[in-house]
Amino acid sequence: MRVISGAYKGRKLHSFPGLSIRPTSDRTRESIFNILSSLLQSFAEKRVLDLYAGTGALGIEALSRGARTATFVESEQHARAVLQKNLSLITDPAAYALIGLPVHAALLLLRGRGEAFDLIFIDPPYGRGLVHATLETLAAGTLCSKQGIILCEHFIRDPLEERYGSLSLFDKRRYGQTMVSFFAASGAPG
User: Fold this and answer.
1) 190 in a domain, yes or no?
2) What is the per-residue pLDDT across 53-79, written as a single tens digit (0 to 9) for each?
3) Which of 159, 167, 171, 185 has the fewest other C-beta atoms within 10 Å?
4) How many domains does the chain contain in total?
């Protein structure tokens, strides 16, 4: 695994032995970021939230491409250790934060702080209904900015609703057994 583009392009990211954590492949990540680049025009000044962060590859890629900040949420201790190693390549430690809580608790904490994010990644372990539950929690709060985009990576057999409160599905792409669904806080972005 490596950073695809931007300031940290080509830098290798640590991964996990075995299959306990399923990092997004370089190829899928490159496709995702090509889509996001076209939607956002620029990552500059974007605030990113990487839920179920694992290796942190999605949030780190956004930082590499110019995002202002990234907040990583990962509750699993072994995954956090790998994530910490990967975050060491970020030259500005003020550009990121790591929250070691379960996602629901982290979302409540962030909501209590009045945080809002322009880009939210949801990439939990497959087959547990976590994307659906996380979207419901996000829809009930104000963590997604008015022009925000939420990207969900999930198993193709884990269907999602078209709407979660004010969050609307506007695109989805299939990559093998993985589905990537894009939601916007106010319908299609643009």
Assistant:
1) no
2) 999 999 999 999 999 999 999 999 999
3) 159
4) 1
Q: What is the pLDDT of residues 4-51, one digit of tens each?
A: 999 999 899 998 765 445 566 778 888 999 999 999 989 999 999 999
Q: What is the DSSP string of the chain?
A: -B--SSTTTT-B----STTSS-PPPHHHHHHHHHHHHHHHS--TT-EEEEET-TT-HHHHHHHHTT-SEEEEE---HHHHHHHHHHHTT-S-GGGEEEE-S-HHHHHHHHHHTT--EEEEEE-PPTTSSHHHHHHHHHHTSS-EEEEEEEEEEEETTS---SEETTEEEEEEEEETTEEEEEEEBTBS--
**Domain region containing 30:** 26-184
CATH of the domain at 146: 3.40.50.150
Single-letter amino acid, residue 147: Q
Does residue 131 lie in a domain region? yes
> Would 5 be classed as within a structural domain?
no
